[in-house]
């Protein structure tokens, strides 16, 4: 196996355009067969992949060590090296992930809404794969397996373009995927890992409108922005999580503090962490001092509006840039607002459409917030940290969409499908 | 009213980029208010539009006459002039269309799937507008009203860019729309008609990623292809309707002939007309001669494969280009295939993903066709002419999507929406 990886890497690809066009044609050709594959065959394939990974963990770690060594040589920082590394535990996690995807219900073929029309035809919808999905991701090699599994279970062919620093690892994993596909006779090109570090391959993928149905970028903001700006193919993207918690007048004090502390401090570097706290002015004097005390004790830097700083003198003064900032760090911006209307308009102005929360005991304001906040997840009396495919019961997620069309919020198997119409008749014609 | 139209037209717009950016900002600003508008207010607004159109039919026809005169002068052909013309009957149709949209259920705010998770939170989805929709269309001015009504009912702001030859008509209709918006106090910029003939306005619209959430092109293939190629904004597009009917072995002879004749000859210039007939070889000798006789008698030109021509000598020989052709005319390509597998692969190779039909009495082959044909509508024993928003019970359609993501097939109100997640808790935090 390892020798195959090396031979692929020795082969320089001269013509990236032609190479990617071929990858695209192969994916499109495989997609039809994959769409028709039974649940059993797809699950058996995923099991074959899991077994191949377990059996090849030494070879996978050897390939990963090549990437790690090259990464150290080229001066990757510790955080990137950590993401890149495949330990035995992480390899085991990939295998577990495959078993979880096997256990998920197959969304494909589900028929809904089948009803008779006055003409006598029955009209309904059948859930079908999207076709060919392109995934563009950065350094974590586990995405190779996670994304391949979700795409395959949802009947889609997939083209995987990982970070160039993890190519050896990804190609080793690709061979385990190939072994799974081979074990059931599904097309070998159903899952393809782009076997070049040349960034021109990404540019090609983004414009292959004939052979790629949707691109999902997974990575930092600069990657996602580049993909969104350059793509001529539909993109399911997640740009930022500038999540708000609004503490309403009359909110339960204890609940408000618990939710805010959890949303900010449960984990800092995640997209569903609270980055900005809004407090109704009638509630500020009561809630801000004890909440600030807890957050400061946990090491969170607070950056407040003028009135917040008056209530909590140890706050720093927020600058105009703070309201739109996704800190991904123990920093929180704090603003006192008149009430729910101003909270909603502040979120509309500065939010990122990811997840926003109201803490309230007031029925009508809860309803208004749910309806009017235009974010992929809107919550009442819960921590924004719940915005997650596992917590929502999707089983697994390939990302979180902050887009408006096709799918919003955590994207699981269903987000990788669409619905076609089916019509059942017994000879009807239009009159 | 007419004076306003003229003054707008006299004003040359110097800076199209700045003008369109302003249109975009205004649409985005209006979208929030529209998303929160109640069903009653939206219906009242649509009623106000209908009343304004009825009251202004003379002025609308005067504006339309300016367009017609300019069209005649510039040598538009009769078909285009016919599409452009607003007769009293067509104005009445627009008013009827508005009343039909009023009668449709409001999709916005619908909550589905709300269920408890192990953490104690309830997770569900709420149907919400897409935001700002751009419609790019050609000569029919009725699209101005139809599209505005569907976008408004689904809570979306809309930017309408009609054909330059119909600008006077569209601006007159825009004033009726404005009267409706004014009657209920919805934002005046919820519906905007681009008030310039400059094609640069289209180019701008296609790249306004901040202010336009989706573009829907309505028109001929060259318009749609241009939009799809240039757009940096998601597009819901309908490229072609190269619809197939496959007559399976053992199909009911009478039913097969009736469906094929209806699918081909009910109307020729429509996207859901049959353009290609596939016949299982075991059935060909029985069905092709009597079917060909009927079609030829109705004036349809038949272009067959070699075997078809042997069975029906009056057929022309099909060229290689015939299989992919959307004739929109009394022409039909005819091919004899081995059976359902070859029919499915022929459709995959040459079809356009619009609507494809099997006529069969065989359970397993019907199921296989439904599952494996990757088209927006797949039918068993019914005429492809049923692929239509009204026939499907959507009430009205803004177009038919042959895309794979977001929405496939006829696009009604629901296709102009998406679903966000809502989470209802009573103080839950992540542990």
Oligomer: homodimer
What's the alpha carbon Rg of chain A, rounded to whole Å? 24 Å
CATH topology of the largest domain in chain A: Aldehyde Dehydrogenase, Chain A, domain 1
Largest sheet of chain A: 7 strands, parallel
Low-confidence stretches of chain A: 1-8
Side by side, the strands of the main sheet of chain A go 10-9-11-8-7-12-13
Mean of residue pLDDT values of chain A = 95
How many domains would you count in the coordinates of chain A? 2
Question: Do you know the CATH architecture of the largest domain in chain A?
Answer: 3-Layer(aba) Sandwich
> What is the molecular shape of chain A?
globular
Please state roughly what percent of the residues of chain A sit in beta strands, choosing from under 5%, 5-15%, 15-25%, 25-35%, 35-45% or over 45%.
15-25%
CATH class of the largest domain in chain A reads Alpha Beta
Count of helical stretches of chain A: 15
Q: In CATH, what is the homologous superfamily of the largest domain in chain A?
A: Aldehyde Dehydrogenase, Chain A, domain 1
Question: How would you describe this structure in keywords?
Answer:
homodimer; alpha/beta; Aldehyde Dehydrogenase, Chain A, domain 1; Aldehyde Dehydrogenase, Chain A, domain 2; 2 domains; 44% helix; globular; disordered N terminus
């Amino acid at each position: 196996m390892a020798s195959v990886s090396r031979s692929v890497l020795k082969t320089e690809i001269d013509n990236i355009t032609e190479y990617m066009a071929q990858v695209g044609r192969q994916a499109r050709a495989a997609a039809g067969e994959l769409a028709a594959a039974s649940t059993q065959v797809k699950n058996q394939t995923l099991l074959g992949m899991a077994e191949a990974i377990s059996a090849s963990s030494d070879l996978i770690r050897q390939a990963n060590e090549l990437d790690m060594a090259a990464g150290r040589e080229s001066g990757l920082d510790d955080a990137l090296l950590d993401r890149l590394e495949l330990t035995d535990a992480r390899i085991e996690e990939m295998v577990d992930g495959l078993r979880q995807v096997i256990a998920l219900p197959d969304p494909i073929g589900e028929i809904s809404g089948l009803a008779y029309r006055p003409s006598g035809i029955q009209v309904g919808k059948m859930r079908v794969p999207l076709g060919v999905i392109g995934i563009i991701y950065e350094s974590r090699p586990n995405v190779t397996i996670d994304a391949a599994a979700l795409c395959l279970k949802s009947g889609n062919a997939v083209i995987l373009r990982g970070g160039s620093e993890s190519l050896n690892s990804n190609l080793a994993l690709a061979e385990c995927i190939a072994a799974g596909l081979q074990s059931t006779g599904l097309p070998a090109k159903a899952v393809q890992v782009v076997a070049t570090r040349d960034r021109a391959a990404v540019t090609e993928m983004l414009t292959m409108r004939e052979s790629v149905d949707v691109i999902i970028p997974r990575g930092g903001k600069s990657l996602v922005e580049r993909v969104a700006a350059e793509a001529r193919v539909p993109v399911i993207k997640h740009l930022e999580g500038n999540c708000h918690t609004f503490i309403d007048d009359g909110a339960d004090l204890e609940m408000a503090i618990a939710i805010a502390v959890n949303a900010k401090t449960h984990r800092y570097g995640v997209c569903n962490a609270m980055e900005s706290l809004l407090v109704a002015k009638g509630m500020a004097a009561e809630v801000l001092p004890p909440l600030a005390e807890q957050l400061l004790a946990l090491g969170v830097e607070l950056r407040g509006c003028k009135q917040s700083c008056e209530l909590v003198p140890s706050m720093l003064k927020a600058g105009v840039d703070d309201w739109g900032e996704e800190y991904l760090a123990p920093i929180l911006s704090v603003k006192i607002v008149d009430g729910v209307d101003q909270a909603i308009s502040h979120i509309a102005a500065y939010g990122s459409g990811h997840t926003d929360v109201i803490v309230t005991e007031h029925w009508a304001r809860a309803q208004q917030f749910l309806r009017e906040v235009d974010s992929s997840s809107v919550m009442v009396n819960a921590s924004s940290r719940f915005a997650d495919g596992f917590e929502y019961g999707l089983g697994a997620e390939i990302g979180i969409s902050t887009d408006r069309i096709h799918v919003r919020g955590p994207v699981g198997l269903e987000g990788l499908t669409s619905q076609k119409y089916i019509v059942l008749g017994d000879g009807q014609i239009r009159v």
